[in-house]
Amino acid sequence: MKKLLLVMAFVTLSLVLAACGSSEESASSDGSKEITIGYFPNINHVAGMVAEEKKLYAETLPDGTKVNYKYFPGGAAFMTAIETGEIEGGLVGPGPAMNHFISGAKINIVAAGSTGGTVIMARKGANIEAPKGLKDKTFISPHVGCTHDVQFETMMKEEFGITSERIDGSMKHVTGKPATYHSMFVAGNVDAATVPEPWASVIEAKGSGEVLVDTADVAYGETLPAAVFVTSQDLVKNNPDMVQSIVDAHKKATEFIKDNPEEAKTIAIDKIKDITDQKLSKSVIDNAWERIDFTYEVNGDVLQDFANSSYELEFLKEKPDLEGLVDTSFVE
Questions:
Q1: Which of 1, 180, 197, 269 gives a 20 to 30 Å CA spacing to 294?
Q2: CB under 8 Å to 240, separation ≥6 — which residues?
């Protein structure tokens, strides 16, 4: 009986110790500190690629900290990883970040990653000459209610009075990874796409589609952060020094992109090849680069306006209040 009680006490103590460490960076098997950063293989997330390639987190985090990286196909998986502590922070679209915050996720946006980069493409041969021609057509986006979806559907509703079947409209909506949109166009499976770069430029280069609406004319096209840097409120509260170190590395990466665009493009080409197994040409990256501005400054008012649009499109059940989501103290 005593032996059983001792075992139970040991297990209980182990669980308590594990819980105590959950709000900070994890420890690797050799006892050193360890964190994980996440991002997507999109041009909007080049700061993540540069920070990884140039080992910029090693310059700002305490000596001995091991930095891992995890790549995500979409915002839902990324946000789950943040909420469960699988990753400490990283880049994601503002749509998933806002949606999860409104649903109760304890997260903070502590920086931006970029603006721009969303393009509406029409499949060659679909006979779509203008956005109003999308009535009764099928469009694809990465996920339902993602950043690019909201930008597209906001534009269509406000400017042309056309909505998706989800809200009793005429446009059919499917989802899929942006890297597959060219093949979807070739197969004739969809008529249009709301596309993050560099995949719009891939479609242009391969000739399977044409630009229907360029970045500047999509809703929130040049003002909305296309990527934001997110971490948990728990980390902000309990380990602000670590958050500051992470944001400092992200800022270094952003400045590197501005000061060394050609090297940053090469890094992006190589990382996207590693992650997606697709080799993008320099001309594709050059074209995509023109549609994006890399910045770590984040405007909370624009995010609130965007969230209101998401509500009006019925992606959100309640009118959103983003008070407490954005914390700009780490970039000031």
A1: 180
A2: none
Phi-psi group of 314: left, alpha or beta (phi > 0 → left; psi -120 to 50 → alpha; rest → beta): left
Dihedral, CA of residue 19, residue 23, residue 27 and residue 28, to nearest 10: 100
Query: For 20-69, what is each residue's pLDDT tens digit?
Result: 333 444 554 434 489 999 999 888 999 999 999 999 999 999 999 999 99
Residue 198: which H helix or E strand, with range?
Answer: none
CA quadruple 152, 153, 159, 162: dihedral positive or negative?
positive
The ranges assigned to domains in the chain are 23-116+224-330, 118-217
* 154, 219 Cβ separation under 8 angstroms: yes
Fold annotation for 23-116+224-330:
D-Maltodextrin-Binding Protein; domain 2 (3.40.190)
Q: For residue 278, what are the CA distances in angstroms to 78, 113, 145, 201, 273?
A: 22, 23, 26, 13, 5
**Alpha-carbon torsion 292, 118, 308, 316, what sign?**
negative
Residue 324, Cα to own-chain centre: how many angstroms? 20
Tell me, yes or no, if the two domains 23-116+224-330 and 118-217 fold the same way: yes
Selected from 1.10.1660.10, 3.40.190.10, 1.20.1250.20, 3.40.50.720, the CATH number assigned to the domain covering 118-217 reads: 3.40.190.10
For residues 62 and 59, what is the distance between their CA atoms, to the nearest angstrom? 8
Measured CA to CA, the distance from residue 262 to residue 267 in angstroms comes to 9
- Give the integer Cα–Cα distance in Å for 49 and 136: 39
The one-letter amino acid at 316: L
Query: Rounded to the nearest 5°, which phi and psi values hold at 72?
Result: -120, 145
What is the tens place of the pLDDT at every residue in 166-185? 999 999 999 998 989 999 99
